[in-house]
Specification:
By secondary structure, this protein is of the alpha+beta class. It has helices at 8-25, 41-53, 72-82, 87-91, 98-108, 111-122, 241-277, 289-317, 323-348, 359-367, 376-389, and strands spanning 34-35, 38-39, 128-131, 148-151, 155-166, 173-180, 189-196, 202-208, 219-230, 279-280, 283-284. It has three domains: 8-95, Acyl-CoA dehydrogenase/oxidase, N-terminal domain (Butyryl-Coa Dehydrogenase, subunit A, domain 1); 128-235, Beta Barrel (Butyryl-CoA Dehydrogenase, subunit A, domain 2); 242-388, Up-down Bundle (Butyryl-CoA Dehydrogenase, subunit A, domain 3), CATH 1.20.140. Bound molecules: flavin-adenine dinucleotide. Flavin-adenine dinucleotide binds next to β3, β5 and α11.
């Protein structure tokens, strides 16, 4: 049986979150602390306290760690509501990269690591990073990982350079991917390390200037300069980093879809209102077929995206990995929602590219979605290979 109805309490919570974001969070969209490198930490902390007061902070965390242990479908419904403002997920502590990092740590970290590195992120007191991408190494192809770790039986020494590391400036919990060299003590290969951010050997060279500004702290260029970590810094088992990254990626790419769906709906609502009121050639622009078709295409795309997300989430809730479906969802939703945002800019006319409305920010922020957690082409390449193998 296929049942698309939502439980009444989930619908009520969705509506409460949407109201919270509209009433309490949207007013911050013009706050100067929302900088070209994203919301700064002071703004983030203020937003987090608003969500905490409403009991809406980190609701996705496992129940044993203080959250509500939401299912993937529940997340889809609630994150969409949070995404109405790009600051909504920041307030509710379900924005990237923290959301994916919390998920990964809750699955792989040991009890001591949970206390020291995960709990402060869950409680909204500190931020986290996932450092994998490299200028001359890992990117779409993680096998190109060039950052090295050597182990002398007691300590690891890490050297390498990363970029596009979201939130690097100011984050306290760091997950670092490096290739462990052959050694007589531990299995070699790509390995995840967990450390504090403010230790000698982690050098933040600069924060990159990018076209998006929805991630706290922006995106950093980072150097590991003989970063020395103890044996206890290994997250999970050595040589298993790519497996853990996959564990993080399938749900994380879906949560991006959920949040951006909410932002695209917001853009559509602004375009619809404009089409109802702006006139040209003797009638409202919405009465011109060219405009109504754009709004209709948006409506269709939003609906298709929601169903695609829900299906992948439902599969994961049934215990499936849903890698193929989440890959299809990520590539489809990122491309479709960007088209939605683009059509909203078009309906708005010249003001569409100005900051008179939030559509311009959504359009710019959403562009990056087609790249991270796997560029569209890489997902289609993987989907195509699976199709050909069948
Ligand atoms: C906003 C943002 C935030 C990010 N945050 C983080 C972060 O916190 N931590 C982190 O480690 N990384 C982060 N990244 C990096 C992100 O994961 C990479 O950008 C992504 O993996 C792609 O790698 P790349 O940029 O090196 O592109 P490349 O690997 O150089 O690929 C460039 C292009 O080549 C094409 N291509 C590559 N492979 C194939 C293929 N098999 N078939 C067809 N075409 C292909 C695609 O069009 C792709 O866009 C972030 C990126 C962005 C944009």
């Amino acid at each position: 049986m296929i049942d698309f109805s939502l439980p009444a309490d989930l619908e009520a919570e969705r509506d409460r979150i949407r109201r919270f974001v509209i009433d309490k969070i949207v007013p911050y969209e013009r706050d100067p602390r929302l900088t070209s490198h994203g919301p700064n930490d002071e703004l983030r902390q203020e937003l987090v306290e608003l969500a905490r007061a409403e009991k809406l902070l980190t609701i996705q965390a496992p129940t044993e760690l203080g959250g509500r242990g939401l299912t993937h479908v529940e997340q889809a419904v609630l994150y969409e509501a949070a995404g109405w403002s790009t600051l909504g997920p920041v307030a509710m502590n379900c924005a990237a990269p923290d959301e994916g990092n919390m998920f990964l740590l809750s699955k792989v970290a040991n009890a001591e690591q949970i206390d020291r590195y995960l709990m402060p992120v869950i409680t909204g007191r500190q931020r986290s990073v996932f450092a994998m991408t490299e200028p001359d190494g890992a990117g779409s192809d993680p096998d190109q990982l060039a950052t090295t770790a050597t182990f002398d039986g007691e300590n690891f020494t890490i050297n390498g350079r990363k970029w596009l590391i979201t939130g690097a400036d100011g984050a306290k919990t760091w997950i670092i991917m490096a290739r462990l060299a052959a050694n007589p003590h531990l299995p070699e290969g790509p390995t995840l390390f967990l450390t504090d951010g403010d230790v000698p050997g982690i050098v933040i060279e600069r924060t990159m200037n990018t076209m998006d500004r929805n991630y706290v702290g922006g995106h950093g260029v980072v150097r590991f300069d003989n970063l020395t970590l103890p044996r206890e810094a290994v997250l999970g088992e050595t040589g298993q980093a790519l497996r853990y990254a996959q564990l993080r990626l399938a749900p994380a790419r879906l949560t991006h879809c959920m949040r951006w769906l909410g932002a695209a709906e917001r853009a559509q609502s602004i375009a619809v209102e404009h089409a109802r009121t702006r006139t040209a050639f003797g009638k409202t622009i919405g009465e011109h077929e060219g405009v109504s078709f754009m709004l209709a295409d948006n409506e269709i795309a939003l609906h298709q995206c929601r169903l695609t997300i829900w299906h992948a989430c439902w599969l994961m809730d049934q215990g499936h990995k849903a890698r193929h479906e989440s890959s299809m969802a990520k590539s489809f939703v990122s491309e479709e929602l960007f088209q939605v945002a683009d059509r909203c800019v078009q309906v708005l006319g010249g003001i569409g590219i100005s900051d008179e409305t939030v559509v311009e920010m959504i359009f710019r922020d959403m562009r990056a979605f087609r790249l991270y957690d796997g560029p569209t082409e890489v997902h289609k390449w993987a989907i195509g290979r699976k199709v050909l193998r069948r």
